[in-house]
Specification:
single chain; alpha/beta; eight-stranded mixed sheet; 6 helices
Amino acid sequence: MLLFEPAEGARPKAGIVMFHGGALRKGSADGLAPHCRQLAARGIFAASAGYRLIGQAAVNIDDCIADARRAVEHFVGSAVLRGLDSSHLASGGSSAGGHLALVAAMITPDPPLPVSRPGVAAVVALNPVVDLLAYPSERLRILERDAGIAAGRAVEYSPIEFVRPGNPPVLIQHGTHDEVAPVGQVRRFRDVMVQAGNDCVLLEYERAEHAFHYPGPAGHFDDVIDATAEFLLDRLAADRASAPPGAGTGSGAAVP
């Protein structure tokens, strides 16, 4: 877990722990370090967390989810030392990491049931998969195989199936040309969340493909960071009255 602090001497206004993408089989905490560094520059205590990968130390998706839950617990402990309790903290991630964050916040382990008390107060997901059952049967079988999900049990890992009143606020940022997680499934998730009385914001990036939010030629990195910071400071800031959305100074230092 890489920790990114606001400018020296500045007390963080909110916090977020993020999980990288890579289909649960590749990637590392370094993947979202640029995002966390920029969030720290806006006054947010940010962490980029790794987890066991399938085909390496993880046997299946359950190991990845367990690591995500442990990471959230560890992050909460670190945040408390910086004056932030769980009401000021979020989880999130990219692609498979966004899915992990949603599952950890919405679904209890064995047997799967809706979470009554999420460990975080909000979730920020970048191009996540939210409805596993939306895929055609052949594609779903491939997803189950690659993620180590027993045949026919994908519903137990599908966030849209566990939407209930009281789910934490969610911000989803998604490309309209996402070929991995078609935007239609996140639109349905947003609609179901809102119908249940939950706070769910979907920001769509026109013609953007999967993993559109990294620094580089895609050109969306700054917009994604600005929207994430505004969402976190608006919903979670320890001192909302004096926390202007997107404000903050400093470069953010990584601490392993």
